[in-house]
């Protein structure tokens, strides 16, 4: 049995990761400051004898003895990470330093949840890991993009200078149950709007593309990455290669919910990437047996059921 720390464990992805790691027979410590996460996401794990919940902020050092660390703590949607941009960059950078310091002291293996945002508004399509990106260092998305880029640098430097056993994954748009209903991301926005019979808000003309990965495929990839041989550091793209326009996503959601909602067009936010699609050759080669299994419509159906139950219970999401 391994003792594993998951920072950001009460968030959307973190809660699925905690669940899966417990199921695999590990002891899991879930650390979160509840900025965008919520106890509701992990309440079903609280009676598990090998699950522990810690309220803590990763910008402060944390002392514990663990074998592995998954560093996920960071707001991930533009609405949330732009709410307090200085805190966002502190979370990425100081959080990485604190968790790398911990990994160094206790000789734990540590995995960083990086992002496709390190590619910014990419000029190469699809994006391989070797692409350095096209990021505006002073724009509204910079606190997140540059924070995550700096965290990758820190991971590499702690590895080179202090032999810390690191892994980096670059996560592409991921969706599924336990996404925050008000996080402003396109999948949650459209589903909530469709279920409430409100207009679906397409930003721009809807021709921009994203590749949507279902959460279980991502968690599978992250765990496989953690188990790769010591010398393999990444970064590795983990995402679904099937690319859709935002207009296609809206049409699918309207059809699957049977909603009578209409589509309205709003201004495209500044620095909004026009295209995003991962090149996943490296992941398929290095993460033995990994591939995305869940098709968009199947994953959307699960996510729609989740939001349907959240909305019908009229649950209150207190954060932000
Ligand atoms: P999320 O907002 O649901 O989860 C982030 C969690 O981190 C929340 O529970 C939040 O309360 C916690 N947190 C934030 N700041 C913290 C701090 N200072 N100290 C402790 N905890 C803190 O978002 P998510 O979608 O689950 O994303 C998890 C990670 O994956 C993030 O690092 C994000 O950048 C990365 N990622 C996600 C996606 C995606 O599509 N969901 C894509 C790329 C990268
Ligand atoms: N988007 C949209 N309507 C919404 C929310 C988002 O058209 O209600 C667009 C957004 O402009 C972007 C895409 O959907 O082009 C994905 O946005 P999201 O915030 O989900 O993720 P990211 O831009 O970080 O990939």
Automatic annotation (TrEMBL):
GO terms for biological process: D-xylose metabolic process. Keywords: Cytoplasm, Decarboxylase, Golgi apparatus, Lyase, Membrane, NAD, Signal-anchor, Transmembrane, Transmembrane helix. InterPro entries: NAD(P)-bd_dom (IPR016040), NAD(P)-bd_dom_sf (IPR036291), UXS-like (IPR044516). It is an enzyme of class 4 (lyase). Its cofactor is NAD(+). It is found in: Cytoplasm; Golgi apparatus, Golgi stack membrane. The keyword Cytoplasm applies. Residues 5-303 form the NAD(P)-binding domain. It is a single-pass type II membrane protein. GO terms for cellular component: cytoplasm. GO terms for molecular function: NAD+ binding; UDP-glucuronate decarboxylase activity. Its EC number is 4.1.1.35. Pathway: Nucleotide-sugar biosynthesis; UDP-alpha-D-xylose biosynthesis; UDP-alpha-D-xylose from UDP-alpha-D-glucuronate: step 1/1. The keyword Cytoplasm applies. Belongs to the NAD(P)-dependent epimerase/dehydratase family. UDP-glucuronic acid decarboxylase subfamily. This is UDP-glucuronate decarboxylase.
């Amino acid at each position: 049995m391994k003792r594993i720390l998951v920072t950001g464990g009460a968030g959307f992805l973190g809660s699925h990761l905690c669940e899966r790691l417990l199921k695999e027979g590990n002891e899991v410590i879930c650390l979160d400051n509840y900025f965008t996460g919520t106890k509701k996401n992990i309440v079903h794990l609280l009676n598990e004898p090998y699950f522990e919940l810690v309220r803590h902020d990763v910008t402060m050092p944390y002392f514990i003895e663990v074998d592995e660390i998954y560093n996920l703590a960071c707001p991930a949607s533009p609405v949330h990470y732009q709410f307090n941009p200085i805190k966002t960059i502190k979370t990425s950078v100081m959080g990485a330093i604190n968790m790398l310091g911990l990994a160094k002291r206790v000789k734990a293996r540590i995995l960083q949840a990086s992002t496709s945002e390190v590619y910014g508004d990419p000029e190469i399509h699809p994006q391989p890991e070797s692409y350095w990106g096209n990021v505006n260092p002073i724009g509204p998305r910079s606190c997140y993009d540059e924070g995550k880029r700096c965290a990758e640098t820190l991971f590499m430097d702690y590895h080179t200078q202090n032999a810390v056993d690191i892994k980096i994954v670059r996560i592409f748009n991921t969706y599924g149950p336990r996404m925050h209903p008000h996080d402003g991301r396109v999948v949650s926005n459209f589903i909530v709007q469709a279920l409430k019979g409100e207009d679906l808000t397409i930003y721009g003309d809807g021709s921009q593309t994203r590749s949507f990965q279902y959460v279980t495929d991502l968690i599978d990839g992250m765990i496989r990455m953690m188990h790769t041989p010591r010398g393999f550091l990444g970064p590795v793209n983990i995402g679904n290669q099937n690319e859709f326009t935002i207009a296609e996503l809206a049409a699918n959601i309207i059809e699957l919910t049977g909603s009578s909602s209409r589509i309205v067009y709003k201004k495209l936010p500044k620095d909004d990437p026009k295209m995003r699609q991962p090149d996943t050759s490296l992941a398929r080669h290095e993460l033995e047996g990994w591939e995305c299994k869940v098709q968009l419509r199947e994953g959307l159906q699960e996510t729609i059921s989740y939001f349907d139950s959240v909305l019908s219970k009229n649950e209150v999401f207190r954060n932000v």
